[in-house]
Design brief:
With 549 residues, the protein is of the alpha/beta class. It has helices at 11-23, 37-46, 63-73, 88-95, 109-121, 149-160, 166-176, 207-224, 251-254, 262-279, 297-308, 322-325, 338-347, 353-373, 379-398, 410-413, 422-462, 470-477, 481-492, 496-514, 519-525, 531-542, and strands spanning 2-7, 28-34, 51-55, 79-83, 101-104, 184-192, 231-234, 239-246, 283-287, 291-292, 319-321. 52% of the residues lie in helices and 11% in strands. Helix 2 (37-46) runs parallel beside helix 3 (63-73), helix 2 runs parallel beside helix 22 and helix 14 packs antiparallel against helix 17 (422-462). The longest helix is centred in the last third of the chain and has 41 residues, at 422-462. It is globular. The two termini are 34 Å apart.
Length: 549
């Protein structure tokens, strides 16, 4: 038997759908009704839900924002939209980004039962997991046609080299036979994971097979993002790059209105799910910030490439936004050898001590000959040490740690009177790098912990406000909704909305024990505007009634 959640501000619509489903012969034993996004998220924490029926305008917002919140908590639940005729264009667009289908209001009994029955019967089928395949809205073309080598070459040049002159862009557009109008842009870098793909789930070894998968990925991306006039092309190694065009409304993105970034989050999620569904292959996706004008393409490309590198630290995540991690990625103030910069880049993105030791051994082995051949054996190791020491201090600034870390000062490790030969220098450098790498790792972990503590502070401060939701928390934290959810989950071991719901209910129980407030008053005091919803949650959670103590 299945459980269905209906989300609509109109109580009459909810009750009508509930009655139709309960009285039908479908295998449905529970139908919950919610009248806001927050109520819906509460229900999703309490019980297993097999399907959502979602009004496209619930909470007075758009479906992309709402689906983004729901998917951050329960990404695999199929969603059937409810939309009136005026909103069908939005419903159609939303189908590519997570909804399975839509029904036109007013709801017709026969059509409702047909749609629900079809999705419930196929809920365990891969074809129903994502993207609305039953309506033939997504048909991958699996062809190499249309992706010419010249087009690919020019597009790669455009994102990898800074272009500022209008003549350059005119030349590019003439060569590739298309125009990028924007006026706002974002870049998505997708790294295809060759280690396990296809029906057999085997590693893709042959270059021919890898190229076929890259071409297929390009087709899937462009079909999925047709509404955004996306331009996808394959890049070096396992990368596929997408230029996303956004209209004038996208100025909200570039001004840091992070509550409006749900669309980008859903785009990333849709791409990951569709590649996984049709190619049976995982991906790592990096998404740049949004910028105005074509001149910023190279900058956005660097951002998106950097974002994918954070997979090394957050192995349970697949989608990374540049803005979520840019603070940790500050370059050291002192410039030195490229190898040291690469070492720092890896160290900042790993939480594995063995990895730190391995990377350190590789770095030391590569620069050993420089130390041996240098007239001053301390010169290069000391310079490297100062660069790394600067990085340690930079990461410390995230935690507002101003002390100079004398135990890691290069002169403490490489004093001329104490380190007298090459082997001693190499040994000191190795130990210094390992200790410094562990310090960087620990400080980044502390920074992540501090961010979660800030989230907890916001929750404890605003739990009594009915409008509190994940996106408001993310906006105050200046993070994306997806990263806020994943960071909280990784540190606390539970979804952020589950924590909010349980915190509110625990506060309600305490309030009931020490006051004479009515159930309605208690509900309002802990952030619930709907007394019936609050009473139901309280009963499910405590197996008790609000008034019984």
């Amino acid at each position: 038997m299945s459980s269905i959640l209906v989300i609509d501000e109109d109580i009459a619509t909810c009750e009508k759908i509930r009655s139709i489903l309960i009285e039908s012969e479908l295998p449905v034993n529970q139908v919950f009704t919610a009248h806001s996004c927050t109520e819906a998220l509460d229900y999703l924490q309490l019980a297993n839900t097999d399907m959502l029926l979602l009004d496209i305008n619930v909470d007075g917002t758009n479906a992309l924002k709402l689906i983004s919140i729901i998917h951050s908590e329960s990404p695999h639940i199929p969603i059937l939209l409810l939309a009136d005729e005026q909103k069908q264009h939005l419903a159609h667009k939303t189908l590519k980004l997570g909804a399975c289908g839509y029904l036109t209001k007013p709801i017709q009994t026969e059509q409702l039962l047909k749609e629900v029955n079809e999705f419930l019967n196929d809920k365990n089928s891969e074809a129903k997991n994502f993207g609305g395949n039953k309506r033939n809205l997504f048909q991958p073309k699996f062809t190499m046609a249309g992706v010419s080598s010249l087009r690919t070459y020019i597009l790669n040049e455009m994102v990898s080299r800074k272009m500022e002159h209008a003549d350059d862009f005119r030349f590019v557009f003439e060569q590739i036979g298309m125009t990028l109008s924007g006026p706002y842009f974002a870049i998505i870098v997708m790294e295809l994971q060759w280690d396990r793909a296809g029906v057999g789930g085997e590693e893709i070894m042959l270059l021919r097979d890898r190229n076929l998968l890259k071409y297929a990925a390009v087709n899937i991306i462009e079909e999925t993002l047709k509404e955004w006039n996306a331009v996808a092309f394959y890049s070096a190694e396992n990368r596929v790059v997408t230029i996303l065009q956004l209209d004038e409304d996208a100025h909200h993105y570039s001004k840091g209105k992070l509550a409006n970034l749900s669309e980008l989050r859903m785009i990333g999620s849709a791409l990951f799910q569709n590649i996984q569904q049709y190619l049976r292959m995982n991906t790592v996706i990096g998404i740049s910030s949004v910028h105005h004008g074509l001149q910023s393409l190279s900058k956005m490309y660097v951002q998106a490439c950097k974002a994918t590198k954070w997979r090394a630290l957050y192995e349970d995540q697949q989608i990374f936004f540049a803005n979520d991690h840019y603070i940790k990625d500050a370059k050291p103030a002192v410039e030195w050898q490229k190898l040291t910069v690469q070492w720092l880049d890896v160290i900042k993105k790993t939480n594995n001590e063995t990895k730190i030791e391995q990377e350190t051994e590789q770095l030391v082995s590569k620069i050993r000959w420089l130390v041996v051949e240098s007239p001053d054996v301390l010169a290069i190791p000391t310079a490297i040490a100062y660069q790394v020491y600067t990085a340690v201090l930079d990461v410390g600034k995230l935690l507002h740690v101003d002390r100079q870390q004398p135990e890691l000062h290069p002169l403490y490790w490489f004093h001329p009177d104490q380190v007298t030969n090459v082997e001693m220098v190499i040994e000191q450098l190795t130990l210094f790098l390992i200790v410094s790498g562990q310090t960087i790792k620990n400080r980044i972990a502390q920074y992540d912990e501090r961010q979660v503590q800030q989230m907890l502070h916001i929750i404890q401060r605003d739990f009594n406000k009915a409008e509190l939701n994940i996106q408001l928390i993310a906006e105050e934290m200046k993070l994306s909704t997806l990263y806020t959810h994943e960071l909280f989950q990784s540190i606390k071991g539970e979804p952020i909305w589950k924590f909010i719901m349980e915190y509110r209910l625990e506060q309600a129980r305490k309030l009931i024990a020490v006051s004479q407030l009515s159930a309605e008053q208690v509900a309002v005091e802990v952030g619930y505007s709907n007394e019936t919803h609050f009473a139901l949650l309280y009963h499910h959670y405590f197996k008790d009634t609000v008034t019984k103590m």
